[in-house]
Fold these 4 entries.
Entry 1:
Amino acid sequence: MVPLLFAHHRFEIVAPAALFWPKKNALLVADLHLEKASFYARQGQMLPPYDSRETLAELADLVSDTAATTIFCLGDNYHDGEGEARLETEAAKRLTAMTTALEWVWITGNHDRDVAGLWGGKVVDEWTGEGLALRHQASANSLLPEISGHYHPKVRIAVRGRHVSRRCFVKGRQHLILPAFGALTGGMAAQDPAIEACVGGPAEAIIGLKDKPVRFPLPFGEMATDIIDEGQMALPLATTGP
């Protein structure tokens, strides 16, 4: 687990796109986009129809690894308004088993405003507690420090001389934006003006590398493509720390 401090709370990065909140014994994930493949199949673009199974299997593994008793899903849980009812049989069985065993909170997003908890769980527009707000989309004028999703932030880095895109968390003084957890989700550059407008400055992109968070000040521009070599842990422009 990789420590991440935000708003006087300690979290742990437990996967490229998931946080564990020890105080609540909870996992936080955003943008599952379940049934994205079946949505595109309806449009004539055929994709392997196993994205929901893969996403839920990864989430189940994290529950096992962390012994979490609560799940907060921060919106865009399904890729479209009909995705909840369309959830394929095996994925629906797995999801029902998890929502029965755990306290499960669905926070609605722009893709799934009508999510109803068909497979279990509690549905809310946002959740507040412990001095924090959990919602789908960041609000520049939030009265509370907030954790959100929506933007699917990523950074482009160099790993052993090869440029790759990595999911990242974006952290500002009042905002923490989670990357997308779903198996088929894309991403937006962490320094995109849309993210900057919500988070303001100063801010940083964070990825979990081994046992430390690696931080990139935002905006970092094109230089960010040449800062990391995971093999030798060379980080001349990034910083590490709790």
Entry 2:
Amino acid sequence: MPKIKTILVTGEKGQLGQSLKTLVSEYPQYDFTFTGRDQLDLACTESIDDYFTKNSFDLIINCAAYTAVDKAEEQQALANTINHLAVKHLAEISKKNNALLVHISTDYVFDGTSYKPYVENDVTNPQSIYGKTKLKGEQAIQAIGCDAVIIRTSWVYSEYGNNFVKTMLRLGHDREQLNVIFDQIGSPTYAADLATSILAVADSFNNEAEGQLGLYHYSNEGVCSWYDFAKAIFELSNTQCIVSAIETKDYPTPAKRPHYSLLNKAKIKQHFKINIPYWKDSLQLCLNKLQ
């Protein structure tokens, strides 16, 4: 694999894309390009072909995805186009151009029936269209055999875009009481932490340590339910809102979500010497920025 000098980040307006943008100044050795749907529309094959006919990169970090989990149940074709077919296309381009592909996937590839944190080679069994299309994207990359690092993550939030933290802050100011699910267990991921780790992983391929291709899991350390997460958001932001715990069955949604999707991060920590912050510490950092 050639040395990495040029880096493309797709999905520049998303949480992860914007978080990566804040880190560019720390990596002056790289030439970064950020694209959104206007320049590179992953729902359109012609747009992808046209873009890569005119531009080439040593590394593609694919942060773009169809992430509207419930809406995906209706918009199955679109979710499949962006999460699977476009990813396949990017993998083919990466292989042809001898580029490295870093692709972001999800804990929703698992069915959530485990009782211990999922490791990378655990059996996948997605229960939603979102999870199924994301898994197909992973499998396409592996089948094509380009140089790739796939990072599964969970419960992403940040200062940017729409996410659980910002929704809770908004609702917490508008309402005196909220019901939040307590029987879905996992770990939140602060997009800034994930972005930092992605660039550390990418950077390792230029170092003597030599990066390692393959599948990895990343989320913040610790474990909580959505109820615990909401309670922490209100406590750390001094928001006066009572949170009541409810079961998943009391809050039906179009897409089925895993009851337990905690990710085991031992592999990424070991291979890339990454230090992963505790979820509550990162939540406090995000809330400080939002306030």
Entry 3:
Amino acid sequence: MPCHHAHAALALASALCLALPATAHAAPAAAPLRNIVLVHGAWVDGSGWKAVYDHLVADGFHVTMVQEPETSFADDVAATRRVLDLQDGPTLLVGHSYGGSIITEAGVHPKVAGLVYVAAHAPDVGEDEAALGRTMPSVLAMTAGAIQKTPDGFTYLDPALFPRLFAPDLPVARAEFEARGQVLAAASVFSTPLTAAAWQSKPSWGIVAGADQIINPELERFYYQRAGAPITTIPGASHSVYESHPREVAAVIEKAARSLGGEMN
């Protein structure tokens, strides 16, 4: 081999050797958290998340809604776990109202990286939301006849009162439509004690609906403070805050997702 060729080969080999350690020891870039699962509350279904979904999808997130049956707390948690099983990586789990109890129990799933509570309950192990609600009664709790029950033990909001209590900041026609399309919830879902509390070990965020009449806003604040969750209060928002203020709700969800998974590309 000519001398100058040998020198060139040695120089190239040396350069490669110097480059290899840097490549081998380079820290991998943080993987963006793209998966978000949305869990609705009692008496409604996942379609109420549509505006929040649109904001999140427009910003590049992969979003799935759980359609829990509201037949029992165990059934609703199982429905949520089933959707979590389908996710392809770390996931942010979001719950509204009674959905907060569901994500608290289901959030111990290994794919769940964090939790967002939207005007939601967040009981501890051994607690249930019905008992906690009695410690800080809501307008709903003090409105006689607002919660109706079928002979076989399923509950619903009096359709005549639904627009005023659940969704006073939505267009009346829309609120009335939701009142007539309620998913009846087994009364037992509200009084089943939790066996797990994911907020004890996973990062959490909380949204307080400032004019909530279904859950006392002070109870929401108590839950989030106990969980060590950053709190966002949306003044004047009703219990249907995820529908009436979707941009603000989506912004909190996105902030949580980015803090867990780094900036998205």
Entry 4:
Amino acid sequence: MKRLLAPAVAAATLLVAGCAPMVTQSPGEGLSPVNAVSDGEDKHLMLFGHDVVSYFTDGRHQAGSPAIKSVYKGVTFRFASAEHKKLFDAAPDKYIPQYGGYCANGIVYGIPWGGDANTWTMIDGKLYIFGGSGSRDAFLLDPKANVALANKYWSEEVNGSNAFWQRSKRMVLRVPHYKSGQELADAVAKAKAAGK
């Protein structure tokens, strides 16, 4: 009996552990999915609590304070200052990262995953977050084409979906233009060697 219970308990544990991000990243009030975590009373905390306004006003990322925050469409945003909160509250859509704060290069492939607050760029006054410098460098090889692809997959598949299921689907059913991490790294290395 114990031998039968152990696999069942392990499977149930994995299922429950997988449910937390499914709920946290899909608040379902207009900003879903989002690169969010649960932190104390903040059940859908955007970008690990980093101040989204700082990218625009200070040209850098910085942590927000749990004491200075706003909730917009079910997602909590923290700010480094009351002034940043005021700016956000006046025009939230201006400051929200593209693609729910997920790695923009992942969204090119229909995969909502990753997104580090310290790896980012601005394109045409919009904030794009990346899973690391390799992802950012690959995206910037052709930003116009990659923004177009990311916008397509975001609007047609990802926006309003459950991040876990969308990610699972696109990890198995790859988009036609899919490139592996190694292929992207090789393309970046080639471009850097050519001085681009």
